[in-house]
Inverse folding.
């Protein structure tokens, strides 16, 4: 099979159309169409189907793409390793993390490591939770930053921070003067929810069920940062990840306690049995210090000080 066809399939899935795939790969639309047609011919089954006026992956196409994605990521890892060796970066820390952890803690910790240790080198990559399982299985990282619990036979986990879900809204929201937000409050006012598969949303749903509340969810998004941005526009209440709320204090928002308390646990993940490099230890220690500072800041924010 043609490696360029794999790249065309990935670009199509990421972009959602032939036109976007062509733009991403700096090719023409007919070239992308030919590559995808050749891929179908080589595979021997239908990968794409037309739904209305749009092309979409078939069920078999989705299964193929999962494997193609793994192949492309493995190719990227080989390329990155070779480049690091050429430039003498033998102690480079490979970090993967969810977006909200990058915005809330990891970027600051990474910057401090570099400023305090000029020879420090790292690669910080954002990954969706669904992608993390693949990366963990491949062990193409030195440390991953996730929300716990997370179990996998190839990893070891360490708790480095605990916090709690917060409620975020516009200063003109009817509940903005309250000291705390409860599940029942999301019945009367629009609630901006996250995907049901996210740990944060599962914690929220557990609180709703425990209090027999049914949230009035009119908007659903994938990230706390997006939910907070919508809340800042006056679109409703966002029950959000606290580090993301802290990182977006510059927006026109108020942040309130959510009760009952819904705890969040942040963990560091390491490949099982692999010795940690000195650079990895530098990052781990700085991340712990950064997390401690962030927890104090969140407590002050919720206390209104």
């Amino acid at each position: 099979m043609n490696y360029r066809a794999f790249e065309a399939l990935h670009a199509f899935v990421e972009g959602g159309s032939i036109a976007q795939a062509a733009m991403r790969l700096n090719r023409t639309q007919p070239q992308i169409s030919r590559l995808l047609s050749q891929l179908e011919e080589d595979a021997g089954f239908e990968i794409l189907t037309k739904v209305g006026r749009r092309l979409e992956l078939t069920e078999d196409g989705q299964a193929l793409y999962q494997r193609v994605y793994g192949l492309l990521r493995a190719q990227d890892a080989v390329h990155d390793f070779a480049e690091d060796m050429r430039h003498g970066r033998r102690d480079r820390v490979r970090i993967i993390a969810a977006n909200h952890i990058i915005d809330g803690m990891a970027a600051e910790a990474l910057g401090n490591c570099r400023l305090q240790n000029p020879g420090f080198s790292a690669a910080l990559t954002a990954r969706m939770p669904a992608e993390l399982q693949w990366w963990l299985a491949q062990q193409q990282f030195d440390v991953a930053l996730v929300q716990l619990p997370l179990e996998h036979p190839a990893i070891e986990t360490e708790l480095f921070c605990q916090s709690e879900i917060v409620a975020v809204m516009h200063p003109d929201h009817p509940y903005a003067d309250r000291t705390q937000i409860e599940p029942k409050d999301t019945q009367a006012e629009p609630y901006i929810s996250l995907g049901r598969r996210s740990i944060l949303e599962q914690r929220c749903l557990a609180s709703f069920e425990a209090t027999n509340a049914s949230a009035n969810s009119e908007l659903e998004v994938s990230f706390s940062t997006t939910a907070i941005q919508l809340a800042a526009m006056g679109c409703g209440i966002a029950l959000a990840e606290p580090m993301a709320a802290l990182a977006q204090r510059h927006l026109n928002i108020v942040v309130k306690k959510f009760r009952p308390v819904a705890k969040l646990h942040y963990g560091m993940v390491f490949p099982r049995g692999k010795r940690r490099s000195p650079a990895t230890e530098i990052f781990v220690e700085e991340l712990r210090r950064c997390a401690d500072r962030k927890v104090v800041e969140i407590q002050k924010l919720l206390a209104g000080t």
Remarks:
- The longest helix spans residues 59-86.
